[in-house]
Design a protein that fits this description.
Elements: E1 2-6, H1 11-22, E2 26-31, H2 39-48, E3 53-56, H3 62-71, E4 76-79, H4 86-91, H5 93-114, E5 118-124, H6 147-165, E6 170-176, E7 178-180, H7 199-207, E8 214-217, E9 229-230, E10 232-234, H8 235-249, E11 254-260, E12 266-267, H9 268-279, E13 285-288, E14 297-298, H10 303-309, H11 317-330
Helix pairs in contact: 1-2, 1-8, 3-5, 5-6, 7-9, 9-11
Bound molecules: nicotinamide-adenine-dinucleotide and uridine-diphosphate-N-acetylglucosamine.
Protein name: UDP-glucose 4-epimerase
Pathway: Carbohydrate metabolism; galactose metabolism
GO molecular function: UDP-glucose 4-epimerase activity
C-alpha cells in the first residue's frame, strides 16, 4: 500500500512513517524541509530498517505534487504538512493561510486530478475553541481564536464541502489533543527550532540544562491545582491512530471525524512532577500570568475512535516522560544538521 505522507519529515509524520513501515505499508514522504532536517530519513531507516522514498517538494506547488502522483501508484494521502505555532500565526497570518489552507487546497486538487480519493488530515483539538464542558465529543461546536486554529477550521470546512459533492471520497479529519513523547529508541523525537512554544519540549530543555526555568502560565484556573489541564497523548499512540484510520475508514466513502486523545487530563504541575521522576533532574519553575488565549482544561472523549477505528491510546504518562527524556538527553541539540 503506497501512501503519500506530506510533512512526513516532521515530528508526528516521522513517527507515523516508522509505524507504517512496520505494518508493511510504503510511505512516500513529501516535505519541503521548512521545519525538519534531512537527517530524519537516516533515523527512520535506522529504526525501521527501511529508507522511505523522499520527495522534496512544497504542497503549494501543484507541479511538484502532480509529478509524484504520476510517478507512483498512490492509494491514500496523510496530510501532515503545515505550520503549527499559534503565536507565530498571529504575527504572520498570511503565511499560515497560504501554507495550511492553500496547501491543502492544492493537494486536494492534485489528488482529484490523479484519481486518488482517500485523505487523512491532521486537525487539532484547537477547533473546539473554549469548550463548554469536558470531555470533548466530536459533535461539539467548533470555533477559532487565532489564525492557526482558523486555518484548521477552514480546511475542515473546505474538505467537508468537497466530500459532499464527491461522495465516493474517504476524508478523515483527525483532531489531535496534545502530542508528546518520542520513539522509544530515543532516535526520533520533537526537535523544535528556537524557543519551544509547547509545554513538554520546554520542560525537557529545562531538565537538560538548555533553559533555566519553566514559566507556568497561570495558577488560578479552576482545576486540580490551578494550572492548565490537557490531554497529553504519546506520539506513538497518535501515529497508530493514523494507521487505524487508514485501515478502518480509509477505503470507506464518507467524511469521518475523530478525536485522538487519551480521555485523561493532566495539569502542568503534574507533568512537571512526572518529568522530574523520569529524568531524575529538577525542573525549576515560576508561576506567572496566564498566557492569553489559553483555556483552563481540555480533554477528549475518545470513544468514537475506539468504536470505529478499534484504536485507543495505550501508553502511560511514564512512557511519555521517559521516552521524551531518552530523546532529549541523547540528542540535546535535536537532529544533526547534515
Ligand atoms: P512539524 O512542523 O514537526 O512537521 C510538519 C512538516 O511539514 C515539517 O517537516 C515541515 O518541513 C513540513 N512542511 C511545512 N510546510 C510545508 C510545505 N509548504 N510543503 C511541504 N512540507 C511542508 O509538525 P508536527 O508537530 O509533526 O505536526 C504535523 C501536523 O499536525 C501539522 O499539520 C500540525 O498543525 C498538526 N498538529 C500538530 C500538533 C502538535 O502539537 N504537534 C497538534 C495538533 C495538530
Ligand atoms: C497549543 C495550541 C493549540 C495546539 C496545541 C498542540 C495555544 C494557545 N494553543 O495548545 O492550538 O493545537 O498546542 O499541542 O498555543 N504551558 C506553560 N508553560 C509553557 C508552555 C505551556 O505553563 O512554557 C502550559 C499552557 O498554559 C497549557 C499547557 O502548558 O496549560 C499546555 O500548553 P501547550 O503545550 O502550549 O499546548 P496547548 O496550549 O494545549
Amino acid at each position: 500500500m503506497l501512501v503519500l505522507v506530506t510533512g512526513g519529515m516532521g515530528y508526528i509524520g516521522s513517527h507515523t512513517c516508522i509505524q507504517m513501515i512496520e505494518a508493511g505499508m510504503t510511505p512516500i514522504i513529501f516535505d519541503n524541509l521548512y521545519n525538519s532536517k534531512s537527517s530524519v530519513l537516516d533515523r527512520i531507516e535506522e529504526v525501521s530498517g527501511q529508507r522511505p522514498i523522499f520527495v522534496e517538494g512544497d504542497v503549494r506547488n501543484k507541479a511538484d505534487l502532480d509529478k509524484v502522483f504520476s510517478q507512483y501508484d498512490i492509494e491514500s494521502v496523510i496530510h501532515f504538512a503545515g505550520l503549527k505555532a499559534v503565536g507565530e500565526s498571529v504575527a504572520m497570518p498570511l503565511e499560515y493561510y497560504d501554507t495550511n489552507v492553500n496547501g491543502s487546497y492544492v493537494l486536494t486538487a492534485a489528488m482529484r486530478d490523479a484519481g486518488v480519493k482517500s485523505l487523512v488530515f491532521s486537525s487539532s483539538a484547537t477547533v473546539y475553541g473554549d469548550p463548554a464542558s469536558v470531555p470533548i465529543l466530536e459533535s461539539f461546536p467548533t470555533s477559532a481564536t487565532n489564525p492557526y486554529g482558523r486555518s484548521k477550521l477552514i480546511i475542515e470546512e473546505c474538505l467537508t464541502d468537497f466530500q459532499k459533492v464527491n461522495p465516493d471520497w474517504s476524508i478523515t479529519l483527525l483532531r489531535y489533543f496534545n502530542p508528546v513523547g518520542s520513539h522509544p529508541s530515543g532516535r526520533l523525537g520533537e526537535d523544535p527550532q528556537g524557543i519551544p512554544n509547547n509545554l513538554m519540549p520546554f520542560v525537557s530543555q529545562v531538565a537538560v540544562g538548555r533553559r533555566e526555568f519553566l514559566s507556568v502560565f497561570g495558577s488560578d484556573y479552576p482545576t486540580v491545582d490551578g494550572t492548565g489541564v490537557r490531554d497529553y497523548i504519546h506520539v506513538m499512540d497518535l501515529s497508530d491512530g493514523h494507521l487505524a484510520a487508514l485501515n478502518h475508514v480509509g477505503k470507506k466513502a464518507g467524511l469521518h471525524i475523530y478525536n485522538l486523545g487519551t480521555g485523561n487530563g493532566n495539569s502542568v504541575l503534574e507533568m512537571v512532577a512526572a518529568f522530574e521522576k523520569a529524568s531524575g533532574k529538577p525542573v525549576p519553575y515560576k508561576l506567572v500570568e496566564r498566557r492569553p488565549g489559553d483555556i483552563a482544561e481540555c480533554w477528549a472523549d475518545p470513544a468514537k475512535a475506539k468504536a470505529d477505528l478499534k484504536w485507543q491510546a495505550t501508553r502511560t504518562l511514564d512512557d511519555m516522560t521517559q521516552d521524551t527524556w531518552r530523546w532529549q538527553s541523547n540528542n540535546p541539540n535535536g537532529y544533526p544538521e547534515v
